[in-house]
Design brief:
The complex is a heterodimer of chains A (about 290) and B (about 325). With about 290 residues, chain A is mainly α. Chain A folds into two domains: about 1-50, no CATH class; about 60-290, MetI-like (MetI-like fold), CATH 1.10.3720. Chain A has 15 helices and no strands. In chain A, α13 crosses α15. The radius of gyration of chain A is 25 Å and the shape is globular. Chain B is mainly alpha-helical. Chain B contains 15 helices and two strands. Chain B has helices at about 10, 15-60, 75-80, 90, 95-125, 130-140, 150-160, 165-170, 185-210, 215-225, 230-255, 260-265, 275-280, 280-290, 295-325; strands spanning about 70, 80. Chain B has a two-stranded antiparallel ribbon with strand order 1-2. Chain B is flat, with a radius of gyration of 28 Å. Chain B starts with 7 loop residues before the first helix and ends in a 7-residue tail after the last helix. Classes of the chains: A mainly alpha (about 290), B mainly alpha (about 325). Chains A and B meet through α1, α4, α5, α6 and α10 of A and α2, α5, α6, α7 and α8 of B.
Chain lengths: ~290, ~325
Amino acid sequence: MSSKNVQALINAFFIVVCFLIAVPFLLVIAISVSSEESLYEYGYQFIPKEWSLEAYRIVFQKPDPLIKGYGVTILITVVGTVVSLFMTALMAYPISRRDFRYNRPVTFYVFFTMLFNGGLIPFYILMTQYLHLKNSLAALIIPAVMNPFNIMIMKGFLDKISMEIIESAKIDGAREFRIFFRIILPLSTPVLATLGLFIAFGYWNEWFNALLFIDNDKYIPLQLLLVRILSQAEFLANSPMAEVSDKLRFAQFPTLTVRMAMAIVASGPMLLVFPFFQKYFVKGLTVGSLKG
Amino acid sequence: MAEAKPAAPRVVPKTAPVRGRRSFNQWIRNEFRLFRKNKELVILSLPGILFKFVISYLPMVGLILAFKNFRYDQGLFGSAWVGFRNFEFLFKAQDAFRIIRNTLLYNFTYIITGTLVALLFALLLNELTGKLMKIYQTTMFLPFFLSMVLVGYIGNAFLDFENGYLNEVLGYFGLEPHNWYLETKPWLFILPLVALWKGVGFSTLVYYAGITGISSDYYEAAKLDGANRVQMMLRITIPLLKPLIIILFILGLGNIFRGDFGLHYFIPNNVGPNFPTTDIIDTYVYRALTKLGDINSGAAVGFLQSVVGLVTVVTANYIVRRVDRDSALF
């Protein structure tokens, strides 16, 4: 086979693969723009039998929980990313300094938590019984603030900053705080940007801590909102009272199309933003693979 | 203790205590001087150290819960010690065997399929040039950035009993519809498929980055010797990737006791009838915490997961060190 044919064959292979990977999204989108009646009649279809934007109209007509969800999610994403970046840099800088006397014990102290942890139940009891963080925004932010993996990437980057810069700043009389804020942080903007993106995506998609720590209606981030909608609908569908509750379901909970429209509206922005940032993620990956 | 060895002081030379004290003082003074020299860096690292202490190290104390009968009103330290009673269910109830088996087998499947498929994709991507390749990469990477919650929605669109797409396809071929969420067998295929769908873009990228890191000198030399692309792939790319493959594989094995909670919680939708083939340690512990009101067995399993997890990671790292020193985590 000539090399051109091989290329065409591989291209065809990847087109099929990409199609299969993308298809599930298309189904969700298609459901959200179908009419409710056509779904009950024909089931879910990739090409709607009857088009309708009714679901989106309903979502935007009563947007309160969605707006609240966006508010909470944006808040924890912004605050979490800033705090997390700062703490990550603050921790990574001393352990990147080879002349720091306590370098090794502190490094071990930080990375040991990657290998061993108390597990879910002790963590839950700490957060709720001792720190009293149940139903607070802090419970959504704090657990992810210091990820050892991010510290490792940051340290790998800082390792490459030449000692001479730091030495000359010291000779000029700068103290470590000044060096950190005036030299290290500005020099680290590339890695901070990449890590910031990783961290921001993490907070945006955060559902685990919300599932654990949020059970009132005040601080529900988008992802938890989606969890609740899905589990309520499933609960009703699978309960022995399904027949009886059918009316209830239509009265109180989003229907099939609205559910999917909700999912699209909640995650749409991320999906639109994603392709623009993808190349930074790739860069971050290669930064991470260069182990410090 | 002092009476036990009455002869000991006689052996030690008379000057020893004095010299010992002086060198001890010297040592203290020296350490203090060094500490002052490092003081500012210590202060910089202090917030992080304290934070880690509270968030990561304090919960380790909570591991003692595995040996206690926890009651919220008595607290962590007030609750009564019960020895190994919390572990008894491991040998009695079939739950314990089930969740450990599921965790291990699923993780093993994810590692094998993920490695093989990602490797194949990366090798094929490497044969391509130009813009299309970027588009493939982006598309394959997309699911990685979806939250598991949304993936649960997508799964629901396919698996729903009444409207799901899968049942429609079955109906089209005249087959009986399945109530997927209430069955056990299909999950053995559905879960690995979803895991692959979500993770393959990321792993492909890792291997692809590994391939692009290989020096082009090898390929040019091979070309001069008249090697074709398949030969180059088999004789240069794969052998040079071998350390990376082995390391990722072993590290995966090291984490084999840590399950993917989101995958096993949102995709099977936390429905009891499918637990025999979907329940893993992580989902079990979560339910023990939130639903069953049986924190104790959850704490026991969690204890095992943490301790055995540490042993497997350290063992895996030891093996990696033997294979390739530079690639070891620590």
